[in-house]
Amino acid sequence: MRFLFCNIVWLDYYKGIYEGVDVPVGGGDIYKQTGDVHEKYNFEAVEIYGETERYCLGYVATKATKTQNQLHIEKISGCEEYHNHDYVDDVTVIYCAKHPAHNFITVVGWYKHATVYRYYQQMEFPSNVPGDDSVYIQYYNAIARANDCVLLPRRERSLYNKWNVPKRTSGAAFGFGQSNIWFATEENDLLKKYLEKLKNQIEEYDGENWLYKYPEI
Predict the structure, then answer these.
(1) Position 67 pLDDT exceeds 80
(2) By the 8 A CB rule, do 114 and 108 touch?
(3) What residues contact residue 42 under an 8 Å CB cut-off, 6+ apart?
(4) 136 DSSP 8-state letter
(5) N or C: more exposed end of the chain, with fewer CB within 10 A?
(6) 119 membership: H or E segment, kind and range
(7) What is the pLDDT of residue 131?
(8) Selection from 200, 207, 199, 202 nearest residue 154 by Cα
(9) How far apart are alpha carbons 42 and 27 in whole angstroms?
(10) Strand pairing report for 149-151 and 164-165
């Protein structure tokens, strides 16, 4: 299984920002300066390309190179030959965030069988406000069918022993470093056990999925 771990801001629902109800936690300077974050719609199932099937568009902030931001898809395990490709298919993208009440990074949800792009893509959506003809541009670097996406309930994300994601900056032998991207390719037997455990949990998860759950306002 091709794993890609993405560290994003914490939201309960990822259906937009609802002041006083569901606002980003851990958005850093971008949220402080703009009051907005691109990953706010990471788990909203939308219709695209005129299809009836719905998709999720996922965003994670990547580091800028001299030319533009880039997600090095060739660093994903099994994708070493994709140096000259703009995207790769069939990746399990695991979205993570720092828990707002507990001091650990947790899995908030995932996309299975996702397409991951090297550079940001964008898609326009019309405003849902009556009389407003403007469009919203959503940036993303991963896309998957909504049927392959799961957003864990807030209480489920709080289970440290089940969904904790390690940080190398905390002394772990593997895990997130300074980047928002972790490719999980370290040569480490403990990592292999961790990934196998996580793979099984994802495959066997049959709990509640908040993908179609919206905040009560």
Answers:
(1) no
(2) no
(3) 8, 14, 56, 57, 58, 59, 95, 109
(4) E
(5) C
(6) strand 105-126
(7) 66
(8) 207
(9) 14
(10) unpaired
Q: Which amino acid belongs to residue 53?
A: E
DSSP 69: B
Write the CB contacts of 87 (distance below 8 Å, at least 6 apart in sequence). Answer: 73, 115, 116, 117, 118
Q: Distance between CA atoms of 79 and 2, rounded to whole angstroms?
A: 8
Tens-place pLDDT, residues 100-131: 999 899 999 999 999 999 999 999 887 666 66
Q: How many CA atoms lie within 13 A of 105 on its CB side?
A: 22
* Backbone angles phi and psi of 112, in degrees to 5: -95, 150
- What is the mean predicted confidence (pLDDT) over 21-46? 86
Q: How many CB atoms lie within 10 A of CB 77?
A: 14
> Tokens 């958005």 label which residue?
27
